[in-house]
């Protein structure tokens, strides 16, 4: 991994951005990613409030005497400016209070990922009945995978696409070129037939590259899965039903093929 | 006046009056907005000028900020912080947006020049309450490590992004992130900021 351009920030790293955020020292996409993070993290929201108030005090320390004309101009100007009506809260707004319409979908996505994280965590509890070493190793792997999942979802250049799957449920894929990874989110995915599994694929110019097996924990839940392997130049992804253990190449028509959205210019 | 002066609270932190005026302004009360103006204009212009430097442009942006406060007053949510913090957040963000949109062409020169600027504390009003606030903030800034202070002031008073701060100080980005956060946390504790 290149430490400079690096993968997208993980949650811990995102959390560390609270200072930069309060100082308006993030670029647009970074700010959006951070706001997404905060909207799913109440303790972070509290810290952001405090640090924003602290930054405001820095501003207070450089007060100047405004010229009287400014007062006259502003008070004259407002008589011709229509005020925004009070907003009836429909949903908890983002930390800056001005979440734009286009970014509304992602907090939900992040929550879905958090829910998937909970599933993984409860899986860890089960593992702890097993041999301790193994459980620890798996827990560490799970935590690392979750971290990776979050870093892709929160990457400044994260792009998403998705839609209903023909067998039921919904598939969403989030890709980040900077992280060079993709995350597949499935909700409401039915159990595959006995002895079969879902398999994900990267579409490398028509060649399907295996990207991991997906076994829904139970019907109807939401799962986030870090797709195996680098995003590379993949133009899209597919999902098929394969015999248990997976296949080297798709043995059936894909349930769905999702072309990745083009990177923002 | 020989009243003792207590420095524990900033002048603007005694703000229920400001919150009240802002709430009234949100309902279209222009006189109430004039009171809001009187409470915040000096600080708004101050922070905009600290970031932009150019006096004429600063006044223009300050005016935009104050009109935005009028226009969006209904958005203010008292449960999320003080009215002053809300206004100052708008002011700083506007100033930073302006400096970043203007900088594209003269990027290099700006980076080179930015460290040469004197700290922004020089051109400020001598009004007593502002002076006290300034001294308290300055004292608390002195309580940061040199490196925290440098990062925080470059970001806030110069409007640099954390990437620019990292480049300017030749530091890894992660280090700058940490310094900005740790520095603000220390300031928060020193200033007794609650939100």
From TrEMBL, chain A:
InterPro entries: Anti-sigma-K/W_factor, Anti_sigma_zinc_sf, RskA_C, RskA_N. It is found in: Cell membrane; Membrane. It is a single-pass membrane protein. The chain crosses the membrane at residues 109-127. Its main location: membrane. Keywords: Cell membrane, Membrane, Transcription, Transcription regulation, Transmembrane, Transmembrane helix. Residues 14-55 form the Anti-sigma-K factor RskA N-terminal domain. GO terms for cellular component: plasma membrane. Residues 244-265 are annotated as: Disordered. One of its GO terms (biological process) is regulation of translation. PANTHER family: ANTI-SIGMA-K FACTOR RSKA (PTHR37461). This is Regulator of SigK. It comes from Streptomyces aidingensis.
From TrEMBL, chain B:
Residues 37-103 form the RNA polymerase sigma-70 region domain. SUPFAM superfamilies: Sigma2 domain of RNA polymerase sigma factors, Sigma3 and sigma4 domains of RNA polymerase sigma factors. One of its GO terms (biological process) is DNA-templated transcription initiation. Pfam families: Sigma70_r2 (PF04542), Sigma70_r4_2 (PF08281). InterPro entries: RNA_pol_sigma-70-like (IPR039425), RNA_pol_sigma-70_dom (IPR014284), RNA_pol_sigma70_r2 (IPR007627), RNA_pol_sigma70_r4_t2 (IPR013249), RNA_pol_sigma_r2 (IPR013325), RNA_pol_sigma_r3/r4-like (IPR013324), WH-like_DNA-bd_sf (IPR036388). One of its GO terms (molecular function) is sigma factor activity. Keywords: Sigma factor, Transcription, Transcription regulation. The keyword Transcription regulation applies. The keyword Transcription regulation applies. Residues 134-187 form the RNA polymerase sigma factor 70 region 4 type domain. Gene3D superfamilies: 1.10.1740.10, Winged helix-like DNA-binding domain superfamily/Winged helix DNA-binding domain (1.10.10.10). Belongs to the sigma-70 factor family. ECF subfamily. This is RNA polymerase sigma-70 factor, ECF subfamily.
